[in-house]
Structure prediction request, 116 residues.
Amino acid sequence: MARAAAVRPAAPATNFASRSVPRHLARGVIGVGLIVGAIALVPVAGPVALLAAPPALVAFRGCPTCWLIGLAQTISRGRLERQCDDGVCTLGKPRQEAEDPGPRSSRPGTHVRPGR
Prediction:
């Protein structure tokens, strides 16, 4: 007999966070510089200047909105945790476990609690 309480929905695998805030901000400066440069150089270099836009999307990991999401993830890493109890999920400070926190997941920011 399968236990319904043991089944947890998988968290989204997409993660836009960087290893550190300065690294993430550097990616943002590079992305903004490439976008501004691509647009500003169109009168001088013509449509060829727009070839700077794809590397900007790589620096942003998709788009400026993705970069902003990654910034929030990078800043909140280790400070916030999703907690689900009885089907209601909230975002809050990580719970302090007893001396033995039990096994941890391989993904940062997720914790496997005993009995769940």
Summary: The first helix runs from residue 21 to 40. The chain is about 40% helix and 10% strand.
